[in-house]
Amino acid sequence: MNTDTRNLTDLMAQAVDTCTAHVEAGGLPFIGVLVNPAGEPASGFGANRVAESGDQTAHAEIVAMRDALTRHNLDSLDGHILLATGEPCGLCYRYALDHGVTRIHVAVDRDDVAEFGFDYRASYRAFGVTDTTRDRLYRHLPVPRGGEPFTRYLTLQHSPEPKGTSS
Fold it and tell me: Are strands 103-108 and 138-140 parallel, antiparallel or unpaired?
């Protein structure tokens, strides 16, 4: 494993840990973070902020990309890598493509994410993301406990209400 891959793997592991904490706080199991061409984080860990902001485009990956663009006063994300705990939806792929992201590394791919109950595979066609386009960008970057945010989310969503709290 080369240093670049090790750095990306370490950052993805941090993203998964951040994601699990986000789920524990009531969030969705998606975190995105941008890495600049020098291999350094260019954004904070972006979390899905749709509910809090009312912005239907505030998906985790877009939040991270917007942060990198603003934080560094960039017009483009050429040469940047997007790390995502779950493979991005069509909207997020489109945003990454339109802003020049070079690669997208994911801990959990779209098929596994669908098995966890987040099936947005139909969105790729709606945003013009073909399998050829996806193949050009997509890289699987497995990390220990990569699926933990998703399994934890499902557990929390399906756990019974504590006694005395039903209405």
Answer: parallel
Q: What is the pLDDT along the chain (167 residues), one digit of tens a residue?
A: 444 788 999 999 999 999 999 999 999 999 999 999 999 999 999 999 998 899 999 999 999 999 999 999 999 999 999 999 999 999 999 999 999 999 999 999 999 999 999 999 999 999 999 999 999 999 999 999 999 999 999 999 887 655 544 44
**Is the four-CA dihedral 138, 141, 147, 148 of positive or negative sign?**
negative
Q: Which domains does the chain have, with CATH numbers?
A: 3-158 (3.40.140.10)
Q: What is the pTM of this model?
A: 0.91
